[in-house]
Each structure stands twice: as C-alpha cells, then as structure tokens.
Amino acid sequence: MTSAVHSALYLSVPFCRTKCSFCNFASGVFSRDLFDRYVLHLERAIAGAPSMAADAGAELDPLLDSVYLGGGTPSVLAPDQLDRVFAAISRTFKVAVNAEITVEVAPGTLSDEVLAALLRARVNRVSLGVQSFVDLESRSVGRLHTRDITLADTARLRAAGITEISVDLIAGLPHQTAESWEQSLDELVALALPHVSVYMLEVDDDSRLGRELIAGGTRYHAHHVPDEELTVSLYERACERLNAAGIQQYEISNFARTGHPSRHNLRYWNRLPYFGFGVDAHSMLPAPLRGETHRAVRIATPESLDALLAGAPAEHTVVTEQQAIEETYFLGLRMNRGVELLAIKEEFGIAAVDNYRGEIFTMVADGLLALDEGWLRLTPRGRLLSNEVFAAFLRG
Ligand code: SF4
Predict the structure, then answer these.
(1) pTM
(2) pLDDT in tens, 342-394
(3) Which of 40, 52, 364, 370 has the highest count of CB atoms within 10 angstroms of its CB?
(4) What is the pLDDT of residue 396?
(5) What confidence tens digit (pLDDT) does each residue in 186-216 have?
(6) How much distance in Å is there from the Cα of 14 to the middle of ligand 1?
(7) Atom of ligand 1 nearest to the CA of 16
(8) What per-residue confidence (pLDDT) applies to 98?
(9) Is residue 78 part of a domain?
C-alpha cells in the first residue's frame, strides 16, 4: 500500500570556514577540493529520491513546499556549485511557486556572487548564524564575523529583496553577562526581523567547549561561560523581550511575527514527510501497511563525511504506530500551541490519550504541562525541563 508524499527537502552542507568551539553538528573545515565531490553526491542523492521513496513503500509527490539548505555553512559553496544543487532539485522535484526556500548563511560569507546565486535559485529566506552581536563573545567561540558584518549582510539581503531573515542567538556563550545579552537583544529587536531562534548553550561531549566545561578546564574560554542559572535567565529574558517586540515564541527556541514561522521546521514538529540528504540528514516518509496506518520509515544518512563519500549506506528505521504516537506528543509539545488531545484520539484511537492519563495529570500538577480547552502544552517551566517531559511519553 502506498500513500502520496507531498514533501519538503533538507540538504546538509557540512563545510564551515572555522569550527566554532560550541558546535556539536556534523560540520567542519574541509579542503575546497572536496566541495565538488560533495555536490556530485547531493546531485545523485536527489536524483535517487523517487526510488528511495518507492523502496520505503511511499509514493513520491514531486511537489516541494519547502527546501532548506543547512549544515554547516551552505554559503561557502561556490556560486556554480549552488547552481548545480538547485538545478538537481528542479530535475527531480517541482518546487511550488510559493515554496519557502531557505539557506543558512554565516555572516561574512555572503559575497555578491553567492547572493546572486541565491536569487537565481529563488531563495526567499535566509537564516543567519549570528549567535551574538557582541564581538568579544563571537570571537571567543571562533566566529569570524563582527556585529558590523551582520548588520551589513542583513541590509544587503533586504536590498536584494530577501526580507524573510532569521537570526540565531545563543544564550550562555563565554563572556556573556546580563548586560551584554541586553546589548545583543537591543540589536536584534532594532533589526525588526520576522524570525529569531534563541538556543541555550548545549554542554555535551560533542563539542570542544562542552568537553572542556565538563572537564572543568579553561580552554576555549570555558571559565568565562555563565553558570546555568544565568544562562536560563538570559533565555527567559530573550522570551520576554521578543514577545514584547511582537516576535512571538511559537516553539521552545523559535520566535516569529504572525505569519512568519519557519514552514520547514513546522513540518518536522507536525510529522509531515520530508527528504533529507547529505551528511547526517534524515528523511521521514510515511509507509503505511494494512493495520498500521501511521507506520513510517526514517532514513538516516552517515554522520561522517568520509563514510558518506565512500558510499556507506543510509540506515532505515521503521516508525511503528506506538512510536508515531510518542512523536506526536513530544514533537507537538515543542510548539507553544501544544497538542490537541481530541485530535490525537481521532487519529490514533482513545488509548493513545488514555494510556498517558497518569503522566499528564502528574505533570500538570507539577506545573510542567497545562491543559486548556483540550490542548496540552508546556508551561514556561516545562519548556526549561522539556526533555524530562518528553521522556514521560516514551514507552519503548
Ligand atoms: S556553528 Fe555553524 S558555522 Fe559554526 S561550526 Fe557549527 S555549523 Fe559551522
């Protein structure tokens, strides 16, 4: 049994000018000689999308309503390489006239030629990895741009007609203080952007700064990282400032003016199908079977560039009905609007809600979740402890 997949496409480009100390993505600094081989890999992977969908038991509707080039820093590709990537997309898919086409750009990498390539490809949204408007903070984590470069790039994008601009900030960078954070927020609000993402610094083994923090050392300015309490208050302050500026929080880390949330990310949280190619990318394709209407297949590409280019196969995992229910809760709860329990009952049956009654009541009583006219959502406290909340919905 097959079902039509009306879809989105994510492509990862794992190349960066420098490796930021806090970064835990599958990205790094590689020789430009590799770029061509990588683009060739993407061209082949995109061309293989219909057969990949067919193998998963899904039928490909070639209409894309979202294309997203992330990574990494896609804007380090040469203009002709960007042209090749977008040409490959058009050969296999139809990009809807009103599609959201996003490219992640590191401030300072937007040459006139790259900007022209983005315009040729009908790119209408740019996500700028700013992280901080305070130069000391950006420098301390290895970023090469300054506040002035960010402001100049924003102005150039707008002048070129790309007004859907998103800026990422990180709360908890070395040297950050309540005062310096206010400075970044002032700059951000003054830019009057339609979309903003604010993340809290992740302290884990996957980044150099994270490892140094865990070890209690001083490399990478680790001893200048604000403590957890301050980082949380910086994040809360960002929520307050952005909401007051009309850039409303709609997800744990994302804020947008009305009508401007990231369509691409909304697809993930609403469990709509997508293709993902390149290093460490995922596809999620519905592949229902008789008696398992919500079955899907997740296809994960290798996390290492060497393995990918050497032809290592992607990993296929079946998403069962039960896992689909769990994902519906923990992805849906990421969004401020939350999940509608009646809709879950209608989609998966009464047990999909009844089985979680105990957990839901406990977490409502603990102030982590709120239940309002049939919608279940995270409270502000729940947003800070979201992993704990999500874990309660896992039965595997
Ligand atoms: S944070 Fe962005 S620019 Fe920095 S290394 Fe990671 S992917 Fe590259």
Answers:
(1) 0.95
(2) 999 999 999 999 999 999 999 999 999 999 999 999 999 999 999 999 999 99
(3) 52
(4) 64
(5) 999 999 999 999 999 999 999 999 999 999 9
(6) 9
(7) 8
(8) 93
(9) yes
What are the structure tokens assigned to 279, written together? 């290093």
For 252, what's the count of Cα atoms within 13 Å in the CB-facing half-sphere? 20
Same domain, 165 and 248: yes
Q: How many domains would you assign to the chain?
A: 2
CATH number of the domain where residue 80 is located: 3.20.20.70
Q: Identify the domain containing residue 356 by its residue range.
A: 337-396
Q: Which of 244, 267, 290 is at the close of a domain?
A: 267
Strand locations in 278-323, DSSP E? 282-286, 296-300, 315-319
Does the CB atom of residue 338 touch ligand 1 within 6 A?
no
Counting from 1 in the atom list of ligand 1, the atom nearest the Cα of 23 is 6
Task: Tell me, in angstroms, the distance from the centre of ligand 1 to residue 363's CA.
Answer: 36
pLDDT tens sequence across 261-288: 999 999 999 999 999 999 999 999 998 8
Residue 56 lies in a domain: yes
Stretch among 106-110, 126-130, 180-184, 287-291 having the lowest mean pLDDT: 287-291
Q: Length of the chain in residues, anyone?
A: 396
Give, for 378, the enclosing helix (H) or strand (E).
strand 375-378
Q: Is 279 in the pocket of ligand 1 (CB under 6 A)?
A: no
Q: How far is CA 209 from CA 72, 243, 253, in A?
A: 18, 30, 21
- Mutate which of 11, 21, 25 to test ligand 1's pocket (most atoms within 8 Å of Cβ)? 25
Q: How far is CA 347 from the centre of its chain?
A: 26
